């Protein structure tokens, strides 16, 4: 195509049009800026300076001057929720939803924000209904996650399981708590009178399937331990002692850190068939590889019952020397004092009773035992005061401490955050 000289006329025209357009945009921007109230800029400044209380006051003034501003309504509602003023946050989002001129995108956003307000306010029924209304919107994933939390708090495990399945259909990611939902179903089925054996078996089979997915990612040791413990409980209900013992012992290999939760049950299972010696040896060998305070306590008490206090004290001395623990010493002294406060108190290894020169042998022995018992009692009372705060399990997420072991933290509702070890062992 040939170049025509008259085309050059268009060059200055194009420059002129561009300059005019820029001037119009600048004037429009300046005009819009002048129409914004000063409170708007004050609110932004307060937010940048991390002063949410003063920012809220400024934005409330802007909303009064210009009620049509949806963006400020959303910002104001979020600020109210962060401050815990749930009634005001709910009113802001409800006022948005009542507007007929609200776009569909803003309406969905307002509905989701209102659902979060209800959830934080503890109004679970309303929160559930509000989240269900955005399940077919771009807020589907956070809405399903919120519904899972609601069903968890209500212990509605079947609905929680269905919500997890819906979440898995939206995003491809593992959901570790699904195993525990099925386990909770099994617990509920075994707790009723009479136990629903079929429902418990079905729930545990489903838990196994969920745990298999975690096993492929090198996760799920806690989940597998819980399934084995529940299968042992089910076998006990079915009067199958061999199966019960098999499931309990399997915890020692598949989840050795959780042996402390089943040590007493394992020993009782072996005792029921007259094999307490084999059971004690099994736990003692496991303790040497995976020491824990609860397993130590079970082994020490059984050693004392089977082989006498001298051998039990030798085991305790070697164990405490290898793994020093005030809590272990406290439990050891508790077991000794509980056996017999006077006559049953042992002569400590290496201790030789010395009687007074003119005292009869029998009375001297009684005096020594009494004195030793008093010394152990005093020692235990002093140690016990310091170990009470250590004799707890602790959540590694929120730090909530409890005397009992939980699969779900009562403080933050997280799953598998309690280590099967006492506080002293993990510090």
3D architecture notes:
The protein has 427 residues and is mainly alpha-helical. Among the domains are: 67-173, Serine Threonine Protein Phosphatase 5, Tetratricopeptide repeat (Alpha Horseshoe), CATH 1.25.40.10; 392-427. Helices cover 68% and strands 1% of the residues. It contains 19 helices and 2 strands. A two-stranded antiparallel sheet has the order 1-2. The longest helix has 27 residues, at 361-387. The radius of gyration is 35 Å and the shape is elongated. It starts with 9 loop residues before the first helix and ends in a 25-residue tail after the last strand.
Summarize the structure.
The chain has 427 residues and is mainly α. It has 19 helices and 2 strands.
List keywords for this structure.
mainly alpha; Serine Threonine Protein Phosphatase 5, Tetratricopeptide repeat; two-stranded antiparallel sheet; 1% strand
- Poorly predicted runs of 5 or more residues: 23-37, 341-371
Shape: elongated
**Biggest sheet statistics:** 2 strands, antiparallel
Structural class label: mainly alpha
* Tally of strands: 2
Strand order of the biggest β-sheet:
1-2
The CATH topology of the domain at 67-173 corresponds to Serine Threonine Protein Phosphatase 5, Tetratricopeptide repeat
User: How many whole angstroms does the radius of gyration measure?
Assistant: 35 Å
Tally of individual helices: 19
In CATH, the architecture of the domain at 67-173 is Alpha Horseshoe
Mean pLDDT figure? 79
Q: Report the top-level CATH class of the domain at 67-173.
A: Mainly Alpha
Strand content: under 5%
* CA distance, first residue to last residue: 83 Å
